[in-house]
Every structure is written in C-alpha cells, then in structure tokens.
Please model this.
Amino acid sequence: MDEIKISAQDVNVFYGETHALQDVNVKIRDNTVTAFIGPSGCGKSTFLRCINRMNDTIEICRVKGDILIDAEDIYDRQVDPVQLRAKVGMVFQKPNPFPKSIYDNVAYGPRIHGLARNKPELDEIVEKSLRRAALWDEAKDRLGQPGTGLSGGQQQRLCIARAVATAPEVLLMDEPCSALDPIATAQIEELIDELRQNYCVVIVTHSMQQAARVSQHTAFFHLGHLVEYGETGQIFTNPQDKRTESYITGRIG
Amino acid sequence: MTDIALGRALRLKTSLLDQSSRTRKRNFAEKRFELYGMAAVAFGLLALVVLLTTILGNGLSSFRQTFVTLQIELPQAKLDKSGTGDLEAIKKVSTFGYAPLIDTALEQTMAQLGITIDGLSAKQAAGIISKEAPAKLRDAVIANPALIGTVHEFRLLANGRIDGYYKGAVTMVSATRDANVSPELLILADALKAAGLLATSLNPGFITDSDASDQRPEAAGLGVAILGSLYMMMIVLVLALPIGVAASIYLEEFAPKNRWTDVIEVNISNLAAVPSIVFGILGLAIFINFAGLPQSAPIVGGLVLTLMTLPTIIIATRASLKSVPPSIRDAALGVGASKMQAVFHHVLPLAAPGILTGTIIGLAQALGETAPLLLIGMVAFVKEFPGAPPEGFFDPASALPVQIFNWTQRADPAFVERASGAIIVLLVFLIAMNTVAVLLRRRFERRW
Ligand SMILES: Nc1ncnc2c1ncn2[C@@H]1O[C@H](COP(=O)(O)OP(=O)(O)OP(=O)(O)O)[C@@H](O)[C@H]1O
Ligand SMILES: [Mg+2]
Model:
C-alpha cells in the first residue's frame, strides 16, 4: 500500500455564513489518483482549494480543522502559502494559460522558484514538462507563440505542463476535462494515469465513467459532507451509503 | 404536456415571406434608432469641423509675422563707450540707447530708396517698427558683442498694425481712426514691401518668445507658457502616475474589502467630480499660504494638477485592473507565485494599456486646465523664462491655457489672433499626447 500523502481532519469551511464543508476526514494516498465526485455545489472544489490554500484568496472564506501533507499541518502559522502552492500544483476547470508564449507559460513557475540555473536547464524543464503533458510534439515548433492561441484541449494540457514544471508533489485538478472533447479527454486521462507514478493526483469530476477509469480511490461528497470514501472499484460496485448508490445510479444530483 | 398542446393550438399558419406587423414595427424601430445614432455622430462631426475651421482660420496667421529688414549701424561710441568690449559695460546701455539706431537706419533706408510720404515725420515713420525691436536688437548685440562697430542686417518685427494690414485685419479706412497707425504709415509699409524690405514670413518667435505687453501683440510668444505647461506635465507625470498606480494596485489587489476601503472608494470617485477651481483654492491654501511655495511657479501648478489628475488615474487604473480576468491571478497563484508576483508579472502588464490611456487622458485634462492655475497666480505676466529643472520648477511661469485666457482678455484685437494661434498649439499638444497613447497601447497589446 502506498503511504498517506494528504490527511484531512475535521475540516470545516465557511463562506461567510454558508457552511460549505462539514467535518471532512479523509486520507489521500501518494502515487494514487483520487477522484472527488458529487452533485454540483456539494463542496468538491472547496475542499480541493483547501489543499493548496487557494481559499486564502477568498476573503469571506474560513477554514477550520487540520490538513496535513506529509504529516505537516499546512494551515500552521509558519507555513507560507506561496511555498505550499509550489509543492501542490493546481489545474483549473477552465484552461487559463497566461497570455504569453507557450515557453513562458511553462517556464514561469521554474523561473520564480529558481529551479533552473541557466537557460539550457530551463529549456530542459520546459521540454520535459511539455512531454509529460503530451503537448511537446504539437508545441515544439511554436514555443514562441502565445499559449492562448492553442485549442482548448491543448491549452488544458499546457496548464498541466505548467503545473508539472514546478515539480510539485501533489497535483490538484478541478474538472480538467469539462471543456474538452472526447479525444482530448482521453489524452488527458491517459496523462493522469502516467502522472500517478510521480505525483499524488486529486481530480474533481462530474463524469462517473471518468472517475471509474482514472482513479484508484473515490470520495463522494454530498451537501458539504464527505459521505463515502474508498477504493474506486468498491464505491462503484458496492457502495455502503444509500446516497452514494443513488448518485452513482443517477437518482440524485 | 398541456403547455405544449396549448402552444400548438395557438399557432397560426403563417408564411415567412410576408412580414408580420410586429416584425415591421421592430424593423422600423431599429432603422429609426440607427438614424438617431447617425444624426448624433453627424452633429458631433459638424461641431468639430466648425470648431477647427474657426480656430485654424483665426489662428494660423499668428504663425506668420511681418518683418522689416534694415541695415543697422552699431557705432562703438554709443554702445561700448569704453571700447574694451567688456560685456558688463555693454549691458549698461539700455534699449533707449538702441532705439535711435533703428530710427536712423530706417531714415537712411527711406532716403536711399527715395521714399517720401507727405505728412509723415521721421519720428512717425519709426512707428512702423515694433516697440519690441530695440530690445531684440540689444539682445542680439549682447549675444554677439563683435557686432559693435559694424553695419549689420537685422530682421525686425513690424508694428502689430502693419502686420494686421497684411493679414486683412487693418484697412486704410480703419487706420484713419486708429491711434496706433495711420494711412501714411501703411503707404510707407507698401513702399518698403515693394522694395523687398518688408515681408510676411514664418515667425518662430511665436513659439519660442515670451509674452509681451499690451501694446506689442506682434512680439507676444508662447515660450514661457509652453515651458511652464511642460514643467507642470513633468511634475504631474512623475507624481500622479506612480502614486495613482500604487494606490490602485493596493486598493484593487491587496486591501481588505471593508467599510474603510468602501469609504475611500466613494471619496475617490467624489474627488474626480470636484470642480477644478476647488483644487485651485486648496492649492492656494496649502501649497502657497501654508507651505510657502512661490506663487506662479510650475511646482505649485504641478502639485495642484497632480491632485486633480490622481482620481482620474486611479479610476482608470482600477477599471483596467478589474478587467483582467481573475483566472489569470488564480493561474499565477496556482504555480506558486506570490500575490505581488502575480500582480506585477501578469495583472499589471495586461492592465498597462488601460492604465496608460487613463494616465494620458488625465494628463491631457491637466494640460487644458485653467481655473485652478488662475487661483495660484499663474495668470501673472511673466517675461522671464524659468530656469532649467529642478530649480526652474520654482521660477514664475505661465501655462498654455492660462496664456490663451490671458490673451483673450487683452484690449488689442491683434491678441485674438494670438489666442487662436495658442489654441492651435494646445490642440497640437493634445493630439500628440493622444497619438502617443494610442501608439503605446498598440505596442503593449502586440506583446501578447
Ligand atoms: N467564493 C464563494 N463565495 C461564497 N460561497 C461560495 C464560494 N465558492 C463556493 N461557495 C459555496 O460553497 C458551496 C460549495 O461550492 P463548491 O464550488 O465547492 O461546489 P462544487 O462541488 O465544486 O460544485 P460544482 O460541481 O458545481 O463545481 C456552494 O454552496 C457554493 O455556493
Ligand atoms: Mg467546482
């Protein structure tokens, strides 16, 4: 069994008065793809954003409880969220490349974190990241062109390359395929499966099939509660909770 | 189910080829709206054309001026009595020492050409030359003392009325009723013109010279006003841009959203709507009366205009920061950029075109602003050029719009032409600034 990478203990999240997440306890394993599923508004993105403290940027958002990565509390006073985010990369639902060249998109993270000592090293990081994101062949001849000029699927892969370039340990993906066609989706899914070898991947998805295809563990959220968490195969074939069962079979959500 | 059935029952069989009355009405309304819009644009263009033609028609002539060319003897006995060539001694001779030289030269020239005009004494004939001419002659000699003891050709300003005669503002008939000119003088001018000694030509002095007194419209120039405006714009740019952008970035990206920032936000908007004359009073009270800065100085004008421009820049900057999609900030934060890195590496470059446009619009507003400058004494008659910055910021100066205002107040009608000319200069500056704004925007946008 792989070791525990992320461990959440009694996580409660409030947006002002809204209690968006209640008492979430979960242990996410390293080198595993963990899928978060659940009906819209149940708090999947909220929980995902807790893991790299992106919720800090939302003023009304308060997070209670502990989230440990490698047994270290990321909400500890001494933790610098910026440093944390270099370790916990994120891919957003909507592809959001910087309006810069493809190269600069990927090179930005390594640059600000000083991961490359010189240009050849940076070039290597860029190439490796683009290869990881299965974009190298399409992009290698147009590295100088704006990233915003790529197709939606290519943009999303560029965003994955950008996230991978900072050498994170955890990769969070919030519905990374929601804007993509089936072919691009298949490419990204394949990619996620490969990424699993090096990263702890957490993916939010609305597609049961996708969750079943790419993930080893699945967490089902409902109305701010983590209802059920376990091996994907078990969740889909033999759910313990009635709500999980009805969601999976399409009766709620 | 019932709804669908209802819809079906209500639906009438219609042809797409004939328009229903609703469609006709809607199309008509659209046409009408289009016409309104076109009429509004046409009206605006018409107003612009009328404005430009009047101003150009009235003002273009001020860039040309009538000059008289004379051979003037500069005797050493009069200009440098000691004969040592000592500049201080030469400077002791005032313009009164130079005026007779011009008169003599004119007299000699008339005698050479055989021009005699009945009823025009030599003293009256001298009236054809501007009263400013002796001062110009003195300046030329002081600039080049080697001229003393020689006979040299000088191009002297003609009297403003003579100039007006060739620009159509003065006629023989009006000259009979004019204390400053007589028909005889006009005849003399024609004679000199025939001899090739009097001509209307380009007058760089209008841009480079300083203002002149009421009696000498021909010598009045915009030099001090342009320099004053330039100094003020420098001060405004150097102060308002960084302060405004820093304030906007803080308010938009970093400040917590609470009651205080709300109050500040509302007050900045209010500040933008405060009449400019109020800023003038503020400047008078704070910068001159309290801080003791000199009156009429570009530093005070610049500070007042900075206060005025700040809200414009802040509002424009905040708007362009707001228009940068939040996903860009998320993206930057997501790869581990700090908030400041996200702002400076990604948000600010995207907002730059908008910030630049706002700044230049603010500057253009400030350039044309008159009222507050009147209150801080920039309306004074300034003959001396201010020094080089930064000391020059504290010297008295004028400003372009104030100079225009000032000239329109003068009694002599020749100043109307000057004022229109000054408006052209101001417009040229504004157009130049807007062009720069557009070019900069293009440049920045092309980078992405
Ligand atoms: N910035 C915010 N401010 C206030 N409330 C928020 C904010 N973001 C989310 N919420 C609320 O928190 C709850 C959980 O939202 P969240 O975005 O986590 O849902 P989700 O599971 O990701 O839904 P979806 O599948 O539609 O993306 C919702 O009720 C939502 O209204
Ligand atoms: Mg979501």
Notes: Residues 119-132 of chain A form the longest helix (14 residues). Residues A 44-45, 174 surround magnesium ion (ligand 2) (CB under 6 Å). Chain A touches chain B through 31 residues (CB under 8 Å). Strands of chain A lie at 4-15, 18-29, 33-37, 61-69, 72-73, 88-91, 170-174, 200-204, 217-222, 225-231.
